Amino acid sequence: MPVIVESLSYVYNKNSPFEVKALDDVSLEIGDNEAIGLIGPTGSGKSTLVQHLNGLIRPQTGRVIVDGTDLSQKKVDMKKVRRRVGLVFQYPEYQLFEETVLQDVAFGPKNLGYSQEEAEQRAKDALLAVGLSSSVHMRSPFDLSGGQMRRVAIAGVLAMGPAILVLDEPTAGLDPRGRDDLLRHLSSLRAEKQMTVVLVSHSMEDVAKVAERVLVMQRGRIAKDGPTREVFQASEELEAMGLGVPAVTRLMKRLGEKGKPVSQNAITVEEAAEQIARVLRAGEGEQHV
Amino acid sequence: MFRSVIIGQYYPVESPVHALDPRTKILITFAFIVVLFVANNPAMYAVLAGFTLCSVALSKVPPRLIIRGLRPILFILVFTLTLHLFMTQGEELFRIGPLVASKEGVVQGVYIAVRLILLLFTTSLLTLTTSPISLTDGLESLMKPFSRVGVPAHELAMMMTIALRFIPTLMEEAERVMKAQMARGADFESGHILQRAKSLVPLLVPLFVSAFRRADDLAMAMEARCYRGGENRTRMKQLHAGQRDVVAGAATLLVVSLVVFMRWGVR
To answer: Which of residues 146-165 of B touch A (CB under 8 A)?
Structure first.
């Protein structure tokens, strides 16, 4: 079931000298099993938007409909909504609190009313899904490395079995390997559990790797919405917003300007490598003839 | 949820009260609190309330904001009011079972309530009109004379500056952790008192962990910049008491002596 956002606006500190307009007439639809990248400069309303998706913020004007439930209504079973839409905040490792990893991950399912055994089983599955072995189950979450803590925290949301997983800057502060691992797990989660993944990020590389559709936000509005490849073609426009495109996209563009016959729509390193290899091979061929 | 806590918040506008030297404001508040406990009849309270209201009006802080600050102490207000109503001996007004409400109790209760309200108004006015930095500068300068007898004036002031500085940060953090736990289905609002206290664990543990982490980082950052206490430290902004401080001081002195005179002067 999709998520529908209809002309949503939100103002922080309404009617005070600190008034800030965070969302301005935003409309969008998120379908099943989509992989969406949400990008935008700091303060463009990304976090405010994603907090609307699971009812942490109630709509001021406009509507948010999750699985046919209108979140602007007074009587909404929020637990049901939060089980459908899992939200992983920025630096989620700062929300860990339990004595053992397993207990911490089981916190969400237990809140949903699962029994101790069921909750633990879900926790174990979730930990496996983020690539943590059973050796960490009984350890204190505070003894783990930063990347492991991050994955435990994400497992804490996964264990609730959401149909839509929203992650706010999940790779911030991770080392390259931690980052690659995490993104790989996200992609496989989407493939295996038919999940919709919404990735909020400042890293265009991460977005290029995971997302098939990109939403660009600017000053509380959706400035662009389209397939990843298309959105990243507008590099000047994105750069004017203080964003950018993946480094390899920039490289291919430069190569194109130099007259090399490479396709300019490569957005990942692999695609770019393939393109460049093809051109090089073709060049070698010519020399030999 | 944390919006109603206004103690320690600063409301940045330009007003005669904001422009006062922080030392003047601290001394005035101190004098006012002392006199508040001297007052014992409606006329005296009227004088003091008038003084408070004038200060609020001069400060350009919206009265709504200050009144909202009463919310956290509402329980204490009602509690003391009821306690005095029933515990004071005197002329019977009405009774509920073995509890006798007295006329004197009403009077006494109202006095205490008014005293608490005025206390909160003036102290929040002090922090609303004085930025945390200048507040602690003022305190340090006032405590300086006592450092001869071993009071660590600078250290105390620094501790206060840091504490005040981190109130909003910790509140933001608390709100963030709370939202993160709510996203995991945590419920902070329902259940009986024991369940609610228990539901705070997922909020408090991360909050403490991050507070300690922040303290470590801050200590390291201070050391990296060669902080070594207040010895020979000079200031970028020197405190200056000017004409308006004299006027404010004189006004306060007038009110204080008026109340003292009303209490002990008329025989």
So the answer is: none
